[in-house]
Design a protein that fits this description.
With about 140 residues, the chain is an alpha+beta fold. The chain contains four helices and six strands. The longest helix is centred in the middle third of the chain and has 23 residues. The model has no long low-confidence stretch (mean pLDDT about 95).
Length: about 140
Amino acid sequence: MKRTAKAHWTGNLKEGKGELNTPSGILNHANYSFKTRFTGEETGTNPEELLAAAHAGCFTMAVSAALTEKGLNPIALTTEATVQMEGLSITAVHLQITGSVDGINTDEFEAVTKNAEKNCLISKVLNIKISSEAHLIS
């Protein structure tokens, strides 16, 4: 399996603009620029936000898969991924998951999430600090 995305850019770094497109159409001429990435003066996305979305999605699916393997059926899982930048380097990602899952206790849920933190596909390709915290709700 291969997944693709296209980026197009016109102009210089600070005044130029780009757009992102994916074959699925979810990203369809999605705006990104220096301003969307570093200043927030313009509406659009940025690579770090897209990385956070990809990591949150991958991690949440990994937790769901692990729970399913244990014979559990998660009611709901919600993850927020925070990408930390220092200067022009991505230095860490923190994953915060809240889950509603019958038949599991807090310690078991945390063990599942710690395993997913290390083993989801996005975590495996990142060479930075990755941390997580889990909150089980009834």
